[in-house]
Amino acid sequence: MEEKKKLSDDFTRGSIAGKLIKFMIPILGALILQAMYGAVDLLIVGKFGTNEGISAVATGSNIVNLVTFIITGLTMGVTVLISRYLGEENSKKIGKVIGGAICFFTVFAVVMMVILLTFAPVFSSLLNAPEEAYDLTVTYVRICGGGIIFVVAYNVISGIFRGLGNSRLPLIFVAIACVVNILGDLVFVAVFHMNVAGAALATILAQAVSVVLSWIIIRRQNLPFSVSRSDIRFQREILLFLRMGVPIALQDMLTNISFLILCAIINNMGLEASSGYGIAQKVVSFIMLVPSSLMQSMSAFVGQNVGAGKEHRARKAMYTGMGLGVAIGAVIFYMAFFFGEIPSRLFTSNPEFVARSAEYLRGFSPEAILTCIVFSYIGFFNGHGNTLPVMLQGITASFFVRVPLSYLFSLKEGATLVDIGLAVPLASVYGIIFFTICYGFHIKKGKKAQIAEIEDE
Fold it and tell me: How many CB atoms within 10 Å of residue 73?
């Protein structure tokens, strides 16, 4: 029994900051390695491919990332539900959650594959992919779409272990994938000169190898739950994790659609702006790793404590996460604002592309601080299974703030990517105000529930 418990962590006791950081570091490491997929693709295509290939990978990866974020949002429901059952010490229901997840996500992967293979040209046109990069963009999306089942499998496996409080195994899985992806990019793009197609093939091959090896590793572990054949069916637990996951996935989808609209707006500014923005987005993907790892950690941490009836500890975890995130975000803000051209040069030697990338990063840089507060709030509400505020904030921030401001700033005479990048942190300012109001209602509701319990007694 003790050996089994080593694979999961107890967040309901001990130092909040210590346990949060310990859990967060492997998640951050996994996200860093995961972000390297797209970054390495762009970097190697930039060095050994074509200028059109840079734009194609940048635009195509935006489309694929949209699907990935939907998958991540849905698996967050699995993570939170497992955390809740772990806090309740109800291991039998954990097996049912995993069995239901296997059935649901198998069907989901097939549907996503058909959509990406069929509508890749439509998606590329909607994003105003530059004419010279259009065919390459379609190729990238179709190859990644053909292997989307491995992306789904990886995210489901990682979501299960994060729900158990184990962030170490997902780090191992993604490390395997990252090594394979780098080797694949070098072979397919640098050696065989397959350009964009080679980058896409390397990405899917990496995910496939990661899933196979992670399955072998899992089978050798002593897990704190069991999954029987009778658990692998369409059942009630699917509805429970979808009730939590769908609002998160919808929020992630619409937020990323807003960034796709932003990509389309910038693509209209020409190849330099398109490629510069694509390079900046790869840098941004690394900037966003701290808040993303914070949000995932917070969801599992809060979920366990809510399941154990420790609401006060869940709130303290949120405040602790905000403090940690803002401290780290301030350093990242400084680097992105003043030295954005340095990471941009890693992806291309074209000085115009580098200049456009640094422009966007200057406008975007305050987001490194603000989003840590927003994502801490998101993790707190996700951990409670209260995902409606998360969805509402994501939709309103995207379509009432970020997209309208981006469009208005692009119409400004002499508009630069600094102006458009500034729309992102302004949307986060709105998000902080929104969640602070929601949190006030949450506290008020909790106090009313306590009073009602006392009166009943």
Answer: 27
Alpha helix segments (H runs only) across 190-340: 195-219, 236-267, 271-287, 289-307, 311-339
Measured between alpha carbons, how far is 2 from 22 in angstroms, rounded to an integer? 20
- Give the range among 32-46, 124-138, 179-193, 314-328 with minimum mean pLDDT: 32-46
Q: Are 4 and 224 in contact (CB under 8 A)?
A: yes
* DSSP-assigned letters across all residues of 328-341: HHHHHHHHHHHHTH
Assigned token pair, 46: 């930039």
Longest dimension (CA), the chain: 75
pLDDT of 270 > 80? The answer is: no
Closest C-alpha to 40, from 61, 66, 68, 25: 61
Task: Give how far Cα 100 sits from Cα of 40, 307, 326, Å.
Answer: 35, 21, 38
Nearest 5°: the CA angle 196, 202, 203 is: 95
Q: Classify residue 89 as exposed, middle or buried by CB count within 10 Å of its CB (0-12, 13-18, 19+).
A: exposed
Confidence of residue 308 (pLDDT cuts 50, 70, 90): confident
Two tokens at 150?
A: 């491995």
What is the Cα–Cα distance from 192 to 201, expressed in whole angstroms? 12
pLDDT at 405: 92
- Give Cα separations from 19 to 133, 301, 373 (angstroms): 47, 9, 19
Q: At what angle do helices 271-287 and 51-87 cross, to 10 degrees?
A: 30
Dihedral sign from CA coordinates of 100, 101, 102, 104 = positive
Distance CA 200, CA 145 (A): 10
64 within 8 A of 285, measured Cβ to Cβ = no
CA distance 277 to 263: 8
DSSP code at position 90: -
